[in-house]
Amino acid sequence: AVVSTQSTGLKYAYKLRWQRHKENPVYDDWEIGEGDWLDLENCEDTITHPEKGYDAVICIGNSFAHLPDFAGDNSLHKLAISNFHKMLKPGGILIIDHRNYDHIIKYGALPNSSSKLYYQGDRIHKIKTSVLTVDTQATMVTLDYEIDISGIPFGKDQTMRTKPDGKIIPVSQFRLSYYPHRLANFTDMLKGIFGEGAEHTLLSDFQADPPADYISSYFVHVIKKKE
Q1: Using alpha carbons only, how large is the chain's radius of gyration in Å?
Q2: Are 76 and 112 in contact (CB under 8 A)?
Q3: What is the pLDDT of residues 139-178, one digit of tens each?
Q4: pTM, full prediction
Q5: Would you say 98 and 181 are in contact if contact means Cβ atoms under 8 Å apart?
C-alpha cells in the first residue's frame, strides 16, 4: 500500500504503478490512497489494511520532519510513530529517517554530502540554511533552495545567478521548513514506543559501517516490532 497526504505524491504513485504493471502484474495489486499519519487507522476508505498488519512501514526522504511540534513536547511525533507501530504486524519493521540535524544546528549548514543521497541531479545551485531557536532550543530548520532551471520554460520573471565558472543561469527559488530531530532524542522516542528491547539498527546514509570520519547527511532508523 502507498499512503500519502500530498496529491503530488499520489499522482506519482499512480503513474509509477501504471508504468511498472507492464513489467510485472504484481503492481496491479498496489493500493494507493490518502492518509493522515495522526489517524492512519481511519483511512480505510482508500486503503484496506491487512488484518495482521504490514511487513514494513517506510517513511524516508526526511518527510517525517515536516510534521511540526506545536505543543513543544513531541506529542504529535509520538502519536504518528505510535500509529506506524500499530500498522505493523509482529516482527514487522519501521524504516524512518531524518537529516543530520545535530550537524545542522551546530554548524548552521548541511553536511557536504547532503545533496546526493536522494537527489542525484546537478541542478541545485545553492541551499541556504537557517536555524530558528526559542529559549536556546532549536525548533525549526529552514532550507532556501535555488534550483538551476536552464532550458526549462519558467515564465518571464526569473532570478539570475552567476555560477563559479562565470556562467549566468536562471534559478527557481523555494523554501522548506522542518522540525530538527536530534539523533539521541529521536532514537529514545522510537525505543519508548517500540519498547527498550526492540531491535534497532542505525544507518548513516544507508551505510551500516561508514568510515570513522564520515559525516552523515541522513540517519536511517530500522526498528522491529516485537513478536
Answers
A1: 20
A2: no
A3: 999 999 999 999 988 766 779 999 999 999 999 999 999 9
A4: 0.89
A5: yes
